[in-house]
Design a protein that fits this description.
By secondary structure, the protein is an all-alpha fold. The chain has one domain (10-146). It has four helices and no strands. Helix 3 (80-99) packs antiparallel against helix 4. It is elongated and about 65 Å long.
Length: 159
């Protein structure tokens, strides 16, 4: 520690930078998908605002992914919040894609996309959130120990 701040190792910075690029690439890759949905989905299905529902939902997903990328580039431990949000949105997206598919072929495509892309991406984001959260707890524990103070609520740190 220097001046009460925690020094971040170059290895941790590299990991955060890789993480940031992953989130940024996925968020950027979703932008053409949103345009595609905006142009091809029916204006009306059984719901009045079918197209705007999906375009809006995927836009929220891009915001969560971009937020995770931004905070990861800054090596900010708050990356766990947009990462958790992105994971939640990905699970919901997979669920609604599968349950609202109109035909067998659409259902099959939705299930394949859910199993191969959306659910693994959600699991990865939850993994990131958990790792960062555990590291924040570990650093807080180490900071208390460096000051010679026991932490308020000792949390055993395991890997």
């Amino acid at each position: 520690m220097v001046d009460g701040s925690v020094q971040i190792s170059p290895e941790v910075r590299r990991r955060f930078r890789r993480l940031a690029w992953i989130y940024l690439i996925v968020a950027t890759a979703l932008l053409p998908w949103i345009v595609y949905l905006a142009l091809t989905l029916p204006r009306r299905n059984l719901e009045r605002h079918y197209r705007s529902t999906w375009v809006g939902f995927d836009t929220l997903l891009v915001v969560a992914l971009a937020g995770a990328a931004y905070l990861a580039f800054r090596v900010d431990p708050r990356v766990q919040f947009p990462a958790t949000t992105a994971a939640t949105l990905l699970v919901v997206d997979a669920w609604f894609d599968v349950t609202t598919a109109g035909s067998r072929s659409d259902s099959f495509r939705a299930m394949i996309l859910a199993v191969l892309v959306e659910l693994p991406a959600a699991a990865f984001s939850l993994y990131v959130a958990r790792r960062v959260s555990r590291r924040v707890i570990e650093l807080a524990y180490l900071e208390h120990a460096a000051r010679g103070q026991p932490p308020d609520d000792p949390v055993p740190v395991s890997r």
